[in-house]
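Hi R.,

As promised on Friday, here is the backbone we talked about, encoded as structure tokens. Could you run it through your design pipeline when you get a chance and send me back a sequence?
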């Protein structure tokens, strides 16, 4: 029977090799909103991990979790949350879980997809006509699997009627906070995030950190090179060094970039570093000098010159225009 004292009741389905951080971030927001302080009593919020077999479920990190109860009637919950994981597991959801999700949808219980949970819901045929959020990292994987459907990869979560999806990681905490705000209250949502050392709740349309969408490509060599650029932001590789790391000639790497993105590897690196610089200017209190160092520009003068050529403003002016206080150099 549903608990009349709980304002928010969540049932979790964990995919094989699910993403532990997405689950933990989401459930910790519920835990901290459910009781006074961080006493963790499930009073205002309740959550259960559901299973068809009651066997432990192993996460992508190798840590296993024991389910709480069998699937049963989904209508005892306010939301059913599907926590995705590694891509190769997406099509392997047991038929019992698909039937349970179908029943939940028929009963009007909203469905939530965390991380690659959106893939699972699509494979189950439960996302037709809905917008869904997918991490920028899996944007092309989604296009490959679901022809004619374009996912949202430029914001942290999407709420479309009774389907809610998020990109994973810390965005799971923000989606959970959105639900707590709606069902328990804004103060409870803010308390949860504060205890988790998350400065503020982010709106659904807050951009995802990651590669700029103009660098979306299906070329595996280019994708691998872009990821290497992102991982070496503070000390960018030369094109020659990048090609060597990829195991190809510089000419081949440049040819692939031009064919796939119509820009050179150097230009792509600049776009990635500028995107990160904008993110830091908007969200952090780092000085312009610190941001120049963190994004691999030779010095602050070089950073200001490149930034102004792209944005039409200096970094300080851009930061002021985006409603954040100017930081000292």
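Update: got your reply. Pasting your designed sequence below so it's all in one thread:
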């Amino acid at each position: 029977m549903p608990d009349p004292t709980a304002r928010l009741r969540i049932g979790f389905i964990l995919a094989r090799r699910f993403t532990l951080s997405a689950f933990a971030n989401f459930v910790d927001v519920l835990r901290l909103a459910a009781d006074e302080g961080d006493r963790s009593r499930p009073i205002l919020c309740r959550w259960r991990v559901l299973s068809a077999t009651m066997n432990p479920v192993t996460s992508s990190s190798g840590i296993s979790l024991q389910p709480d109860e069998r699937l049963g009637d989904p209508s005892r919950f306010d939301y059913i949350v599907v926590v995705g994981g590694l891509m190769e597991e997406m099509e392997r959801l047991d038929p019992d879980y698909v039937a349970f999700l179908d029943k939940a949808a028929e009963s009007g219980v909203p469905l939530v997809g965390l991380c690659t949970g959106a893939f699972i819901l699509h494979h189950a045929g439960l996302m037709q006509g809905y917008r869904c959020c997918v991490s920028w990292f899996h944007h092309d994987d989604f296009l490959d699997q679901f022809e004619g459907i374009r996912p949202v990869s430029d914001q942290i979560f999407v709420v479309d009627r009774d389907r809610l999806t998020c990109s994973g990681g810390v965005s799971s905490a923000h989606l959970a906070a959105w639900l707590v705000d709606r069902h328990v209250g804004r103060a409870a949502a803010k308390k949860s995030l504060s205890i988790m050392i998350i400065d503020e709740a982010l709106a659904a349309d807050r951009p995802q950190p990651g590669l700029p969408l103009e660098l979306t490509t299906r070329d595996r060599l280019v994708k691998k090179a872009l990821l290497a650029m992102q991982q070496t932001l503070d000390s960018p590789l030369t094109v020659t060094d990048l090609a060597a790391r990829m195991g190809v000639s510089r000419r081949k790497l440049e040819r692939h970039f031009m064919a796939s993105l119509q820009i050179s590897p150097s230009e792509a690196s600049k776009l990635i570093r500028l995107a990160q610089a904008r993110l830091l200017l908007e969200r952090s209190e780092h000085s312009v000098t610190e941001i120049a160092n963190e994004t691999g520009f030779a010095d602050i003068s070089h950073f200001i010159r490149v930034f102004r050529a792209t944005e039409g403003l200096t970094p300080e002016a851009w930061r002021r225009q985006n409603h954040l206080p100017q930081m000292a150099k």
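One thing I noticed while checking it: DSSP finds 13 helices and nine strands in the chain.

Thanks again,
M.
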